[in-house]
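#struct-pred
JK: can someone run the complex with manganese (II) ion? inputs below
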Amino acid sequence: MPTLKKVAAILNPPAPHMVGDGFRVHNFFPSGHKIKMDPFYLLDYNAKIEFSPTNKLRGVGVHPHRGFETVTIAYHGAVAHHDSAGNSGVIYPGDVQWMTAASGILHKEYHEEEFSKKGGLFQMVQLWVNLPAKDKMSTPKYQALPNEGMSKYNLPNGNGVVEIIAGEYNGTKGSASTFTPIELYNLKLQAGAKVSLNTPANYNTAMIVIEGAIIVNGTEKASVNQMVHFAHEGTDIAIEASENSVVLFLSGEPINEPIAQYGPFLMNKPEELQQAIEDYNTGKFGYLEE
Ligand code: MN
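RT: done, structure tokens with the ligand placed:
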């Protein structure tokens, strides 16, 4: 018998901090709120802010990653990415970039040049998706997921669209390939739209209200910049948009392996972190121009 998935908490965005000079982020987890979201390790949410025009490129310079994937989802503004595996790309509103750091890459993340010159609204999510031990040292890869090619499910009666970044919604498969089962959608809903989702009870599940306001399971209200965190009880989620809304939904099967983390490295054991630091210091992550 399907039952409603219990809401554990409606979480406010923690106080923001700057990542480089280009990203003003609220860390929902693991620092901001101590919630279990395995296989998702970190979620930085750049709530909507206005950047002034500049000739300087704001962002984060060359830095390494190993052992996981970074997924960047754009809502406003534009971000350019370059990495030592030779991949690069710009993401605009509606686009997603799925970078598998795995055995190790260097990359840099900056506001795109034309956006920087004009300035304007900026809103992004960056999610760190952990990899199981057997895949942590696999070859790095890059999936550009532009909005025009994104898997979409149109809701009936013009109620909006579910953009399926990963996983499957109502028989429509998501655009990204993933190492472990993950459901990641953007729900773009008209005021009054009702939509139902279902996800296994044991998955770790949350939603962020990117725009607007929603009612979850008939009673729980969440508004812009809040996160709805679900308990491991029940499978079905009912969402009603109180106004035109955008909701990021994430749900994943836990990997349930030990975690050792240091800065940009996410491994299973402390000695693997030592190895990552040594490999980085001896140039084994490749080269990328500043
Ligand atoms: Mn990075």
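RT: quick notes.
Residues 144 and 179 are 16 Å apart (CA to CA).
The first strand starts at residue 7 and ends at 11.
JK: thanks, will look after standup
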